[in-house]
Amino acid sequence: MANGENQNPNPNPIEATPGAAARTITLKTADGEIFEVEEAVAMEFGTVKSFFEDDAVSATKPMPLPNVSGSALSRVITYCRRSLEIRSMIPPATSEDATAAEAVQGEGDLEAEKAAKQERKEFEAEFLKDESNEDVKELILAANYLNIKELLDFLCRSVALRIQNKSVEYARKFFGIEGDYTPEEEAQIRQEYAWAFEGVDED
Amino acid sequence: MSFKSEQTMSYAPEKPENPSPKKRPPSWSDLWLKNTKPLKHVIFTMQLQSLSSPITPTTKNNSNNNKNTKSPKIPKTQIPISNFPKFPNPNFNYSKSESDPTRKLSDQTLLQILSKLPDSNHNSISLVCKRWLNLQGRLVRSLKLLSWHFLESGRLVFRFPNLTHVDLVSGCFFSPRNSGILLTNRVFSMHLGSGFSTKWNELCEDSLFPVEVIDRGLKMLACGCPNLRKVSVIGASELGVLSLAEECMTLQDLELHMCNDDVLRGIAACTNLQVLRLVGNVDGFYGSLVSDIGLTILAQGCKRLVKLELYGCEGSFDGIKAIGQCCQMLEELSICDHRMDDGWLAGLSYCENLKTLRFQSCKRIDPSPGPEDYLGCCPALERLHLHKCHLRDKKSVGAMFMVCGAVKEMVLQDCWGLDNDMFSLASCCRRVEFLSLEGCSLLTTEGLESVILSWKELQSLRVESCKNIKDSEISPSLSTFFSVFKELQWRPDTKSLRPSGVLGIVMGKKGGKFFKRERLFVH
Known about the structure:
The complex is a heterodimer.
Chain A: E1 24-29, E2 34-38, H1 39-42, H2 46-54, E3 63-65, H3 70-89, H4 100-127, H5 133-146, H6 149-163, H7 168-175, H8 183-196, E4 197-198
Parallel strand pairs in A: 1-3
Antiparallel strand pairs in A: 1-2
Helix pairs in contact in A: 3-4, 3-5, 5-6
Chain B: H1 28-32, H2 37-48, H3 60-69, H4 107-115, H5 122-128, H6 130-139, E1 142-145, H7 148-152, H8 155-159, E2 165-167, E3 181-184, E4 189-192, H9 200-207, H10 211-224, E5 230-234, H11 238-247, E6 253-257, H12 261-267, E7 275-279, H13 292-301, E8 307-311, H14 317-326, E9 332-336, E10 356-360, E11 383-387, H15 394-403, E12 409-413, H16 420-424, E13 434-438, H17 445-452, E14 460-464, H18 476-483, E15 487-491, H19 511-514, E16 518-521
Parallel strand pairs in B: 1-2, 2-5, 3-16, 5-6, 6-7, 7-8, 8-9, 9-10, 10-11, 11-12, 12-13, 13-14, 14-15
Antiparallel strand pairs in B: 3-4
Helix pairs in contact in B: 2-10, 4-6, 5-6, 10-11, 11-12, 12-13, 13-14
């Protein structure tokens, strides 16, 4: 059953302000690690969200995540926490009639948005800096399983950046793929690219 | 050009062993095309086993037949088609090896990654593995075909099933692969072998694939890429167009080169067509007749037409009237180098929703337009563009301006014969708000002034490269008039910076090839 929090210290825990009722959700990874995560963060995970929306009772039981390892989940949680923080930097959009005063506030919003974007950029650059290709792939699989759109999009962009304009061999090594073309097949594809067609410029 | 039966045709794919399991309702094209079974078998096999479809390889014998069964007019020195190597064993199953960790990555995630890679990487992506080739191919939406064999062998529809824009024109010609000579005209371009004959008129006919081949390719394309929205092709017949119409419900934009009245019979089936460009006669290259008959068939079939371009077409008042009456949604009409019978201008008044009228490279507009009372006026017309036209005949020009009396925007560029007298005929267009004159070297400031001072609604003026319009001749009333304009671009002294019509200056994407080939310009 649910062990205490001593299994694996939560990375970057958000200080629970006294009096604030921060509901936590317990997640159990494939390798048996237990994570207690703030509800807000856990709701970023699409899979978790739908699980708890359907079955409000199991807030106490740890939710099993059989396809995610402990290390991956901890990174994911870090990302989502930070992402939530950055998002909260932007005040909610004002929807009512725009008065002059609100127009000024609108500018303040713009500033806040820009600052938030900058923060996000820096954070994202830091986040994957030291990750090996293996780790990035593991993160993608985790994000895919947990259905975290923002993280998945970010990871796909990063992977694309890592492999773009590199050689075929590099891409294969990155993903650990074995090339499965015969020499003739490969020659045919190269020929086709050279002679058979070209892209069309959209008018 | 005679052709033996389909069996000896070099491009016919081999009959596969497995018979077609799918039944289709008979269609017009079935009745017309004989012996469609082999083709159908291949296509259905491809459709059913979409991702890992085994394409039957063409045998080595076919490539030998190439040289013998071609049209006899091809000189022997010209190598008709590049001999692709024999088809690889198309066992395009995803790699099942245990060591492939990307198995766990769903197609969708991989597609997300691949879609963020730049276009220049397409080649390397496809070479990584067969799964990537397949996924990358699914992302490609538009393509210009250079080698007909790529289409006919089924490779194109196998690799790129989600195509929406396809330009087949360059691929419809026999093209020696390493040709150093590019023949380009404003309408099409093709590569020539060094043994070409100097009779331009026959050049096109000789170098084009036979109509049956093109129709077959079109059918293959239509069946394999059902999401097609825009297709350009040359030398098709109505059967090819019919197959496009039947298979591709989303077809909106069609460009038919070497089009004639018969081909237009097939167009009537493309009921969703919105944009159409018909090229009939190209001076010096080929002539094909689009007349009132074709225009009427077109009008009755494609009622949703929004934009129509007629290049080198014949016809007369009746054809234009039919289009005006049937195509109620027509908003843009472009007439290029037309061969229409006199009196056709009056037909324009039937185009009740026409907003833009363009004349390009017309040697004459309408020398005998008929009595003024019957000319009428295009009620909704907003834009008139004249580009590189001969405006030497007063009756033509006068009638044209009368029909376009309601225009708000007038653009005259590089037109010959536009002197003060001719331009004065434009005073009948009283609602002009924007005027652009470029390259009108006969016009003087006086001529300009006498017309535009009467245009009370004029707000924007652009004058460029009109060397006889001198700043010194601007009268005070004209300059006061200028001061109320919202926008004024006054550069009559500048030489036009755009190279007018010298196509070869466009480098194109493959800049490297520019230096390897000589270019032959034909205007």
